[in-house]
Amino acid sequence: MSEMKRCNEWQPVFLMVAIDFALAIANVLLKKVVDKGMNHLVLITYRTSISAVFLAPMAYFWERKTRPKLTSGILCHLFLSAMLGATLTQYFFLLGIQHTSVTFSCAFINMVPVITFIMALPFGLETVDIRSKSGCAKVLGTIVCVGGAMILTLYKGMPLTNLSDSRETGTIHTTNQESWLNPNNKTERWTIGTIALVAGSLVWSSWFLVQARISKRYPCQYSSTTVMCFFGTIQSALLSLVMNRKISVWVLKGKMEILTVLYAGIVGSGLCFVGMSWCVKKRGPLFTAAFSPLIQIIVAMFDFSILHEQLHLGSVLGSILVIVGLYILLWGKSKEAKACVAKQVQEAEDHDEEDQASSVLA
């Protein structure tokens, strides 16, 4: 029995490692196809449509008895959620991945919890008690993470590897509507990619705030995600048609593009979402979020061995600070959550004691 219990305790750990490995592969595949010139919005359209088709049966069978009615207000929130979380976020991150590197892009993904925390403060969704250890940890983690982000954004540094950069000698494949986003100068391209990643991080953090409101009014994660992916498919398809009306951009060229859209849709957005939802249910959101830097480590291994990307000093220093700041913030959140639970237990015990005393007096 003890071995079975120990195995059950380690199941979420093994699952999160597998999920991070799968997401790292998805990021590398996305990098390969966008470098070869696949239209970003077309890629997003295919990915979200495949995710919606994959998740729809789960949403129907698992939540049909508990699913509340879809009102116009909830649909509007889901439409906004799709615009922020599916369409704009993926577009900006794909643009950032194309102009920088996958490792560099993953560092900005690690910043999302910290940016979300900062954006949640004015709305009262997060609080900070500087007099407590947890409050100080949250503030310190935020400062360290922002410092890492500043290094990532403003300082590239010298290359630490001898790998040749394919962008300096290779041809950049572009589509007509994105040619203005592909300057020949390597520094300009890195700047554009960094700006896109900052915008993507801000938009994705905004999505978490919207999602927090949706989860209270429509607490069905599979159904809401299916609807969000459906709206995201419509939005990205319309935007793609507005920017480029050529039918040829919708034709998948070769096995790599077909494999990428199928993998990103089914595994990257489908199975990984289900797995992370299970881990959140079993061990909580902090446990799940703590594994996000592992994606960057795995991606870095692929970056050098498969994509042959240069490793720069600024990327290493900034990434380390972002990861350290993230864990300090998560530690503070964990301490705060434990203190909140202990306070609720104490209040419940005090209430029971008052009830017992009242019954004795009666």
TrEMBL record:
Q: Which family does it belong to?
A: Belongs to the drug/metabolite transporter (DMT) superfamily. Plant drug/metabolite exporter (P-DME) (TC 2.A.7.4) family.
Localization (cell): Membrane
Carries keyword Transmembrane helix? yes
Task: Give the Pfam families listed for this entry.
Answer: EamA
Keyword Transferase found: no
What's the protein's topology in the membrane? Multi-pass membrane protein
Q: Name one GO cellular component term.
A: membrane
Q: Which GO terms describe its molecular function?
A: transmembrane transporter activity
Instruction: Write out the entry's keywords from A to Z.
Output: Membrane, Transmembrane, Transmembrane helix
Location of the EamA domain: 13-145, 192-330
Write down what this protein is called.
WAT1-related protein
Can you tell me where the transmembrane regions are?
A: 12-30, 42-62, 74-96, 102-123, 135-155, 190-210, 222-243, 258-279, 286-307, 313-330
